Amino acid sequence: xxxxxxxxxxxxxxxxxKDRHGNRAKCLQRLIRLDLPVPHTVALSFDTxxxxxxxxxxxxxxxxxxxxxxxxxxxxxxxxxxxxxxPGTILNIGMGDEVAARLSETHGPDVAxxxxxxxIRTFAxxxxxxxxxxxxxxxxxxIAKEAYEAEMEEPFPQDPTAQLAEVLRSMARAWDGTTxxxxxxxxxAPADAGLGLVVQNMALGPGQGISGAGVVQFVSSQTGExxxxxxxLPRGQGRETLTDxxxxxxxxxxxxPSLEDVAPEQxxxxxxxxxxxxxxxxxxxxxxxxxxxxxxxxxxxVRTPRSARGExxxxxxxxxxxxxxxxxxxxxxxxxxxxxxxHRQIAVGVDRDVLTTGVAAAPGAATGKIVFxxxxxQAAAAQGExxxxxxxxxxxxxxxxxxxxxxxxxxxxxxxxxxxxIARGLGLPCVSGATRLQMDVRKKTLTVAGxxxxxxxxxxxxxxxxxxxxxxxxxxxxPALGGAFATLMDWADEARDIGVRANADTPEDAAMAHRFGxxxxxxxxxxxxxxxxxxxxxxxxxxxxxxxxxxQAALDRLLPMQRADFIELFKLxxxxxxxxxxxxxxxxxxxxxxxxxxxxxxxxxxxxxxxVASRIENLQEFNPMLGLRGVRxxxxxxxxxxxxxxxxxxxxxxxxxxxAPVVPEIMIPLVSARREVELIKARVDAIAAEVRLKSGKxxxxxxxxxxxxxRAALRAGEIAEHSAFLSFGTNDxxxxxxxxxxxxxxxxxxxxxxxxxxxxxxxRELDVDGVGELLLLGSERGRAARPDVxxxxxxxxxxxxxxxxxxxxxxxxxxSCSPFxxxxxxxxxxxxxxxxxxxxxxxxxxx
Length: 847
Ligand code: PEP
Ligand code: MG
Description:
Layout: E1 7-9, H1 18-21, H2 23-33, E2 41-44, H3 46-53, H4 60-67, E3 73-79, E4 90-93, H5 97-107, H6 109-127, H7 141-152, H8 160-175, H9 178-186, E5 195-201, E6 212-219, E7 226-234, E8 236-237, E9 240-241, H10 259-262, H11 264-280, E10 285-292, E11 295-303, H12 308-320, H13 326-332, H14 339-342, E12 345-346, E13 354-357, E14 359-362, E15 365-371, H15 374-382, E16 387-391, H16 399-404, E17 407-410, H17 418-426, E18 430-432, E19 437-440, E20 445-448, E21 452-455, E22 459-463, E23 468-471, E24 476-477, H18 483-495, E25 499-503, H19 507-515, E26 521-525, H20 533-544, H21 548-573, E27 578-581, H22 595-605, H23 609-619, H24 631-636, H25 638-657, E28 665-668, H26 674-695, E29 702-707, H27 710-714, H28 716-720, E30 725-728, H29 730-738, H30 746-754, H31 771-785, E31 790-793, H32 801-809, E32 814-817, H33 822-836
Parallel strand pairs: 15-16, 16-17, 17-18, 25-26, 25-32, 26-27, 27-28, 28-29, 29-30, 30-31, 31-32
Antiparallel strand pairs: 1-2, 2-5, 3-4, 3-5, 6-7, 6-10, 8-9, 10-11, 12-24, 13-23, 14-18, 15-22, 19-20, 20-21, 22-23
């Protein structure tokens, strides 16, 4: 072993460290330890490469001496994490007139000329950044050398040491380039991330006999299932063929020639090498190899590239085969990766004609024709035509249309705008806050500046994972929920130490939540049950009632509908807890927003248009989100909550009769004062007593409060005296803590994040410092006043790993999030529990 302070020859015992020499160097050492046929390799540390960038070269004569005279060398980058990138590989260093002449004798002039020309081209274009055009086409080494000399005003260097010096210098400097820096920092690399380099003796591919280069992996990148993929280039080198050979399959294949046809033993050796790496490196590896006169060399191996689905399948298979423990399989998968399995996605590597971008508000992708209204979406759905609902912003009126659409696109709104929240609940892709779009709802046009005007019926694709609006249709891959995904979720359930419930408003949501194996429903927003056209009319009658009697008549008609909803929910959840939130939004949300709608409503209610219009006007508020909504409605128009409580209790009796008792949880929204809770509690208790008396049946229920105002958090102690549970609604709490409208913040949020005012959109990622402090204060005060109080977080943040960790640390009982976020929350919860038990060790610690 030869070691100098500047470079280290990689041997089984050499001191090679990932944080000093990079991932590739470490991985090559592991391959060498496994006795795999890796050519001689030398590693240059981060410090050495930094010195090279500053003009201080290591002892290159000594370095070249490691490989012997006349050797051809390759240099590859070796950053600490493979996805931090690095300059591309340079092959055939050491090639000059003498080596080419020798090569011509052993391998023939074609191979020698091709290899020499390729190297001069690489040296000129990649190392010295000369114009590639000068080196294009079928040129000979002589022409290439002349072109080089003309540009550089010096002959092409023949000395291997001089060539190597230039290669190392250019790679070291490329690492410092602005684009490279931005790209790796986007992958999480620190500002001072270092680059290592590995210099390897080339096992020259294009020889006589069976010679060539190839890449192989034994699982599919798309599915993660066993499948041999790769290619072999006879007489090839690196990723190119140097002569006229065509790429071949690795294993026997009816579609064409394969390496196995001519070299079955070598293919078997590759299989065995992959199997060995799988067990000892505990990972599926993609192997780069060469054959020289039939002799196999393994040049490099990297983690097999994989889709989200592949990631899960591979990790689960490794654990099922006993290669890694289950907790490690769980810890390996970044939680948001699961979004790639739960929704349709755009296939990897397809071209996208991106029209504009917005907030990536709900994941998945969908293609359909543009529609500009909820009614048009429903009409399209009725004809079986996929559509994308395009709105300036959505309101509760649009919910039916959202159900009918394949995806949602809005001009306004951020990560917890109405459109975003509902789309996530429905599992629909959504891009919100696409402010560069000009939408003319009346003319039914969508203008993309500098591109084109889209009309209703034109086809677009929404990628809610990337926040992109794409022209036309794009190839998709389907979600995959069975098999490995289901197994992973079972393991996550065993490992996690916090409950995960779903926010589910409809029986469809609840069924989906149940399929994802939730611990209950943490938030059922009951107002969403009133947007069915039939119910909406009755609801409006209730709003327009002139007196208590008329109002009660309308509520009496709503009661059986609500009761039926709750019966269905309780049945679907089979005894699991269901938290039902009493009516929350301002009433005007149920009224039409335009003249046409007002006229239709007047007709339906048999009232003059002017009366309807003035009533609508009366209900308008300057700041509806801070106005007459939530518990304030419950205090001023108590009949609505009474109807809901009655429906809940009657459903409880009905379903409890059929099996285990149902214990409903009733939640009061937007509380800010203890007295509000007292008033509502008195009424709900009275309704419970009435239902008990009338039915002759007993039941229990839990009444709790949604902590959504800063005051409720501050006064949580006295509020908890009347509350069995406190559930923190972090959407409104964030809105009110910042004084920032969740429906309008999307307009400037990206400016705020880009300029570092907020580290992240606080509606997407919990603001642990500010809103988090209120959560801690509220939970501590609540628990001090009532030690058995149940604590939960039910805003959209509940599905975000940071909020899950925060909730665990704060001792919350559960988080609740949109059904499609449940798997992410569960996996994150499992990972944090594993981490806190000290089980998340270094993946490769054993070799
Ligand atoms: C909240 O405010 O956090 C919440 C869950 O309720 P909504 O989103 O319905 O306002
Ligand atoms: Mg709220």
